[in-house]
Amino acid sequence: MSRIPRASGLKALSLNLAPSLSTAARPSFAATRVISTTCAARGKNTEWVRGKLWKGEAPGPEDPYTQRPEPEDSSNLPEQALEYQPQSDKTPAAILATRLALPPKRTEATPEAQLQSSDPTYVPATEAEGLEEISTTKTWWDQPGHWGAESEFDAFGSAAKVTDKRIVEVYLRRAVVELLALQESGVFADWAMKRWNEGDRNALDSTLAVDIHVQDGKASLKGDVSSLSQSLTADLEEADLPERVTLDEAKEIVKAWDPAWKSIALDEQAKFVVRKRLYQLTGNLVPDAKLAAATTVNHILTLASKEPKSPKLAELLSRRDDLQRLSNVKVHSRKIGAIEKETVVGRWKVIEEELKKRGLPVTGTAGLTKNKERDWITGKI
Predict the structure, then answer these.
(1) Half-sphere exposure of 135 toward its Cβ, with a 13 Å CA cutoff?
(2) Which of 88, 152, 252, 324 is the most exposed place for a label (fewest CB within 10 A)?
(3) Contacts (Cβ under 8 Å, ≥6 apart) of 143
(4) Which uninterrupted H or E stretch holds 19?
(5) d(Cα 25, Cα 31) in Å, to the nearest integer?
(6) Which carries the bigger pLDDT value, residue 116 or residue 23?
(7) Under a CB-based contact definition with an 8 Å cutoff, are residues 281 and 175 in contact?
(8) Any long-range contacts for 254-262 (C-beta under 8 Å, 24+ apart)?
(9) Who's near 170: CB < 8 A, 6+ residues apart?
């Protein structure tokens, strides 16, 4: 069978289809107009359908395919984050809101050549007299006015710490009397956690004048209790450090007391109040771990008082006038090293320079072995 005519027919068909395919591949302006007219016709049909489906004005666009609404910017961030605008100044907000007088920012001085070009009358200073003195940043907080009253530390305990046992016993007696006075007045629960007035020396004497009577393990006061409780619960008064009891006065005062008051039992709340008041008056704070084991006033006295340390030999020798008169004798509290001795006479700078010239360590061995001289002699180095 001959297939040549069939092949020629297919070839002719391909020649006829080629122009149509090339034309379809290149969309023309007319084809675009035809598509737009069909969309417009479809929009009219949708209006009729929308009118049948909805009574009144239909929601949404007429043609959802061509008239698409612009997407809204949606974000999960809060409004404060959306409204935030970055600032050029990177200074923290805490520094901007502070009331402290902060040091000024670092500035650079204008070179002398630029000053002479901008100001012909500029004359450089040859002496330091009359020039403005600018302090360093290290001494900034030591200057007056740079710290406010709100920044000053207000300590609860006394700054002058008492160490002698007899003086501590005097103030412990005062704390116990004040505790019993508040309990008898019925205001102890309200003032147990608050700060009491420290008072002056007259307040101390009036408190110690109240006698403590102990019977069957219970303590009671004999004296003016109402005025004592009123002075403690009055408004706090800012006063200087009151006059302290001397050691000789404390010895005489303690002798006149009956030692039975030291056996008064204290519960947990009473121990806390006595410890707090004693810390306010003497500056001695009894640790919580030791306070838990205390049950009586005598226990707190033992924990709060500390025997003074014996003075060191250097302190005793420094008090002797005969040694201070000697020009060739000096007393030190620690051992003086070789570097300190050479520094006093002014030879250490010279020694340090010579050691650096020879490549030797100034202090220490710098990792060198002990037999370095042997290595030099034998030629290993």
Answers:
(1) 10
(2) 88
(3) 135
(4) helix 4-25
(5) 11
(6) 116
(7) yes
(8) 254/166, 254/169, 254/170, 257/173, 258/212, 258/214, 260/214, 261/173, 261/176, 261/212, 261/214, 261/219, 261/297, 262/296, 262/297, 262/298, 262/301
(9) 208, 245, 250, 253, 254
Closest CA to 106 of 146, 140, 151, 144: 140
Q: Are 269 and 185 in contact (CB under 8 A)?
A: no
Measured CA to CA, the distance from residue 358 to residue 342 in angstroms comes to: 19
Cα-based distances in Å from 209 to 55, 234, 265: 100, 20, 22
- The conformational region for residue 205 under phi > 0 = left, psi -120 to 50 = alpha, else beta, is alpha
How large is the C-alpha radius of gyration of the chain?
A: 48
DSSP assignment of 116-150: HHH-TT----SSSTTPPP---STTSTTSTTSS-GG
How far is residue 184's CA from residue 220's CA, in Å, rounded to a whole number? Answer: 8
Token representation of residue 237: 């008064």
| Full-model pTM | 0.51
Three-state DSSP at 185 gives helix
Closest CA to 288 of 305, 278, 299, 275: 275
Stated length of the chain = 381
Name 250's Cβ contacts closer than 8 Å, sequence gap at least 6: 164, 166, 167, 169, 170
Q: In the structure encoding, which two tokens stand for residue 341, read together?
A: 């001795």
Q: What is the pLDDT of residues 187-216, one digit of tens each?
A: 888 888 888 888 888 888 888 988 898 887
Q: What is the pLDDT of residues 244-261, one digit of tens each?
A: 888 899 999 999 898 889
Residue with tokens 């302090």: 135
Distance, in Å, from the CA atom of 198 to the CA atom of 250, rounded to the nearest integer, reads 19
One-letter amino acid for residue 87 of the chain? Q
Give the torsion sign (CA, 193, 197, 198, 204).
negative
> At 307, is the secondary structure helix, strand, or coil?
coil
Cα–Cα distance measured from residue 167 to residue 247, given in angstroms and rounded to the nearest whole number: 6
47, 53, 58, 63 alpha-carbon torsion, rounded to 10°: -40
Half-sphere exposure of 50 (CA within 13 A, CB side): 15
Cα–Cα distance measured from residue 185 to residue 36, given in angstroms and rounded to the nearest whole number: 99
Map residue 214 onto helix, strand or coil.
strand
